[in-house]
Each structure stands twice: as structure tokens, then as C-alpha cells.
Amino acid sequence: QVQLVESGGGLVQAGGSLRLSCAASGRTFSYHAMGWFRQAPGKEREFVAAIAWSGTTYYADSVKGRFTISRDNAKNVVYLQMNSLRPEDTAVYYCAAGGGWRYEGRLLLTSAQYNYWGQGTQVTVSS
After folding, report:
1. Residue 41, exposed/middle/buried by CB under 10 A (0-12, 13-18, 19+)?
2. How distant is the alpha carbon of residue 33 from its chain centre?
3. CB 64 within 8 A of CB 124
């Protein structure tokens, strides 16, 4: 059974930093993409960042220059380093994994590309 478990969320002041982690179990994703999405209250889930099997990264315009996605294939973990946090970054952050084998491209920005999802971790940024 495949599981994705996020950790690292919490409450932080504007301008602060958090590092989210997502540990996958049940299978490896070394040749598949992993990504992060978020959903704020009353809003639709939106793309945040993704990293292809090759290490190619993709970011939403709203987080470019502030967030960094990385992965450790040996540990089957994906990270999201979030710096210069803003109140508008407040949301539940979801880890996702899947997509085509060795696929990389703009489709990784869409939630439909991913087969597996975590339960989410709350990130709250106070002003």
C-alpha cells in the first residue's frame, strides 16, 4: 500500500521559514515526479512546485524565488523549503507523486498528473 506522509507544517510569522517533508512508502518514485500543491480555505487546490525524476524543477509564479523543492531518492522523500513566507501562503499543503515513467514537462503542474496524495499538513503564516 502506497502512503505519502507530510510533516513540517505549523504556525510561523510573515517573513519566516518552514521546511516541509513528504515520506513515501510502499513503492519508490525514483523515476516519477513528486510535487506539492496547496489549498486555502474557500479556494481550489493549486500547484506549488514539482520535481521530475531527473531533478528538473517547476514552480508556481507566486512562490518562485522563495520556495525550493528537492528530493532524496535514496530516502524516498521530497522536501519543500519555504522562505520569506507571506500570509497568503497559508493553506493545507499536499504532497503528490506519480505521473508517467521518466516524464517531465508542463503537465506536472496539473493535479491530474499525480496518482498518489498525502493527507496534507497545515501551514499558517501570521501577519
Report:
1. exposed
2. 11
3. no
3-state percent helix, strand, coil for the chain, nearest multiple of 5: 10, 50, 45
Q: How many Å apart are CA 126 and CA 106, to the nearest integer? A: 32
- Residues with Cβ within 8 Å of 50's Cβ and at least 6 positions away in sequence, in order, are 33, 34, 35, 36, 57, 58, 69, 108, 109
Alpha-carbon distance 26 to 105, whole Å? 25
Residue 104, phi then psi, degrees to nearest 5:
-150, 140
* Phi, psi angles (nearest 5°) of residue 28: -100, 155
Give the pLDDT of the chain (127 residues) as one tens digit per residue. 999 999 999 999 999 999 999 999 999 999 999 999 999 999 999 999 999 999 999 999 999 999 999 999 999 999 999 999 999 999 999 999 998 888 898 899 999 999 999 999 999 999 9
